[in-house]
Each structure stands twice: as structure tokens, then as C-alpha cells.
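Q: Predict the assembly, please.
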Amino acid sequence: MSKKSRSKIWFLVHSWLALPIWFFVLIVCVTGTLAVISQEIVWLANPPMRASQPSDDAPLLSYQQVIEAINKAEPQTVVQSISRPDESHFALDVEVSYPDGRSVVIYVNPYSGVIQGIAPQFNFRAFTRALHGWWLVPFTNGYSWGWYLVSFLGLPLLASLVTGLVVYKRFWKGFFRPTLRIRHGARIFWGDFHRLSGIWSIWFIAVISVTGTWFLIQALLFDNQISISTEKIIPAMSREAVPLSADGSPPPSIDLDRAVEIATQKISGLEASFVSLPGNAYSHLDVGGRGWYPLMFQTATINPYNGEIAASRLISDRSALEFVTESMRPLHTGDFGGLWIKLIWAFFGLLLSMMVLSGLLIWTRRTALATANAFKRSNKKQRDTAAQPATNHELSEVEL
Amino acid sequence: MSKDIAAPQPSRLSLFWHKWRFHLNVLLLLIPLGFMPKYFADEALMRGDSGLGEREVGEVRIGPWSLRLAELRNSAPMLEGPAGYMKGFNAALCEACIDQVKATYLRIGKPRSLRAAGVIFFGTPYRMGASLPVPEKTRADAELWITMEGWDGAMHQASIPLSQASPATIAWLNKQGGKP
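A: Predicted assembly structure:
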């Protein structure tokens, strides 16, 4: 096969990978981009979620001070967990349960402990994630088929990257001589745009497609009951471990600051970013946060009555395989290093969305016109000659 | 068949197909649109905005205490992989017993001891949930036993017919009656 016809085939493969599903790919890219910065969007739209430092030297309240402030303001409200978002301009997210049976997240000021509001009923962050992650198809037994539908896109995306680099001859030259011709018509502009954003997004498309494919593998493993986890299942506390109280009232448990202190002793360098209270009388209290490796969380599981550590999960506890697989999700979402990483992810997410659109525009401007023309011609000619195959035109402009 | 199909002239249908074939995937958007009402109903259910569960069973007295029981979903047990069929129940403790009750359990059939009281509820006294395994061969006249344990070691039990707790589960059991 000649070199030219081989590249024709690669070109056809490249255009066919996303073309028949371009709108689906586009919406997944757009919702993914929104999901990356969804927390920030909610922050902009929803003032109670913001936390401004009253003065430069105002100290943050400890977890125990926060829970005491909530208990004082609303004695009936039961706190289930407190989490400190990565970026300091966010209020604390506190999961609570109200006497009327509602379980909601409330925003608490990390400096004053004031309850600033309840998370809105429409959870934009969860919604964009659900739309992006599983196309809103409910999970019933195992992973939803929407999850498979979306995560399968990792494969054509990876193939698009590879074939794109194959058909774009000497693509590395594009780094040194960036071309974006604005005054030569839409076809030329979108072609230049597609190639220019493509080469600068190589790393991003590789990350997104590999991690996306991992989500597919993850679902396949789970649904076939294959586990690669080395994490031990922590048994509930034994009946004897929970003290009886003669007067029938709940026995005292350690305060949250003590729990954080115990966890920090066990896990050096731990920045406790959440405390999760026991789910019932026989379950533990969890304290966790990021360590030296920002892509993973470390947790300590603590007996709330005597402060003993029942289990811990450190970075060093992960197997080499888990080290890789557990890094996949943060790499996909860009949620591991604060606002700037998220903004970079969102920017390239937007660029990727634009690449789907520009790819489609290139195709419609060239191939669709050629096809339509071929049909017109064949209509004219069909009285005397046979129709000319339209596909000739589709192949005619391999050299972009 | 008619001769038109064999003619070289492209039919209206084929023109339409050639023009729109790559845009048909816009229809995939119907999937999330279709699931959207269920998504928001589920969100409201999980937040507790639409009550304790999809179907309230009512107040059940257990010795000196009582709780309000609800089916999380008004539907048959759901298959959860190797765990088998599970049925979700939610409960809320009576106001007076919040500080006295240490744990609440759920089991199909009478527990022989506190150690075999069944699945334990997780959550807060205002809203807690348990996922009850329902074997496929459960009898339709089975009873749902609720065990409550006090912080002082006291234990109280009560039962209600499974048919009262979850008619959807009974319907499901009856439907697959023949299965061993």
C-alpha cells in the first residue's frame, strides 16, 4: 500500500472516530469541563458558601470548636461530618441531620462557626458530575449502563489522539511555528485551530482518555466481582467495646480535637481535612486528609469511646497497582492541587470541547459539501450515466 | 418489490439519511432528559425532602420505645451483586427514646439472640437506614423483627408482618414463587 493511501485510511479513521457521535462527545466534554469548576461556580452563585477571613490574623476554628458552635446555635441538629474544602475561600461543608428527617449540607464559617446557610436543593456539582459521569442513568445492580456509555468514550478519544498525530505530519513543527490563519475563511481557520489546540492538548487528551478508560475497566472489574483492593474491611466494634451506662444515657466519647491529634500522631504530616462521626453506636470515627502525595487521602479510623486507632489507611499501605489506579480519578477531575490546577483542567476541557466542534465544522465544510455536490451531480447525470460514487470526494482532501 | 428501489436515483430517504446521519446522535440526549425526573426525585428522597422514604409503614411500638418505619423505595428488593437481594428501610426514633436507644436492628424471622439481631441501622435518630437481605425463598407470611437495644443493656423486640412492612416485597416473592 502506498504511503499516501495509508495516510488516507488513517485520516478516515480519525474523522470517523468521533463524527457519528460528535454531539454525545461534545456534551460529555462540556459537562466534564463544568464539573471541574462546579464547586467554584456554586461559590460564585451562592454567597453562604463563601468564607472570608475577618482579619489577616484571624485563626481557623478547630473541629471541636465548630461542632460546639453548631450545637449551641441549633441544639437539635445532629452533625454527621465536617469537611474543610481545599481552597480557603470556601466555607466548611457540614453534613447534618435535622429533626424533621432531612439530611443536608450546611455551610459553616471556618472562623466564626456561624451557620451561613443550607446547600441549595439543586446540587449543581452533583448534577454536572452525574450528567458527565453516567448520563443520569440510575445505578441499580452494579454500575449504571450510562457509566459504560460515557467511559467507553475513553477508547475513541485515545484513538483520535493517536490517529490525529499520525495524519498531522511532522506535528512537532507546530510547536515552533504556530499557525492560526484568521483571514482565509472558516475552513482554514477551523483546520488551523483544530491542529494547534490538538498539539498543545496532547498531554491532556492522553490523561483524560487513559483515566476515562480506567473508569471503564473499574466498572468491568466491579461488575465481575474482581477486586484489586488491599484495603481491609474494618469490623464493627464488639459489644464489649462499647461501655454500658447505668443511667441509660450515651457514654462520653472523645472530642474531635483529640481525635485529630490521635490521627496526626499516627500519620505524620496529615492535614486533617475531614472528620466523619460514627454512623451508629458500634461504628468508628474517621479522620482524614491529604498527605505528601496530593492525589490520595489518608485516614485513621478511631474508637470514639477510648480513642484507640482501629485501622488506618496510609499512602504506604497502597500496593503499587493501587497507587496507579487510585491516582486516576484525581488526574481525571483535576481536583488535587487547588484552584489553579482546576482552571488549567477547565481550560483544556474547553479546548477539547472546541476540538470536537472544529472537527465537525471541518468535516461539514469540506466533506458534507462534497457529498451534497456529488448527489446533485449524480441527480443531473443519472439520465445518461451512472451516478458517480460520492466517496471519491470524501477522500479527496487528505492533505489538510 | 417496486422498481423504484433499484433505480440509481437517490431516494428522498437516502438523501435525508446522508444529510442527517451524523446528527442522529443528538437523540442520545433523550436518555438523560428521560432520566432527569427520576434523578431529581432520588435526590429529594436522599435529602429527606420527600419524607422518610417512598412509602411510610407507620409507627411501630417496641417495648417502652417506638420508631417510625418507612420503605426507602416502594419496590421489590434490589439485586446487589454477590450480596443478593437487598431491601432498604428507613426509620426515625421517637423523641423520648433518642437518648436511650443505643442501636436498632432489622431481621426477617425472630432473632435467637441479640448477637443475631440482624442488620444494624446507620444514621441519626431522625433518619437512619438499614439494608435488609431478603432471601429469594422467604415465605410470604414472614415477619419483620425489630430489635432495639438501650445504652443500659436493655433489649426490646417487636415484629410486624412483612406484608405490612413491604407489600412490594411480598408481590415480588409471590411472583417468583416457583423458584427454589
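The beta strands of chain B are 55-62, 65-71, 78-79, 85-93, 101-108, 119-120, 122-124, 127-133, 143-150, 155-161. The longest strand of chain B covers residues 85-93.
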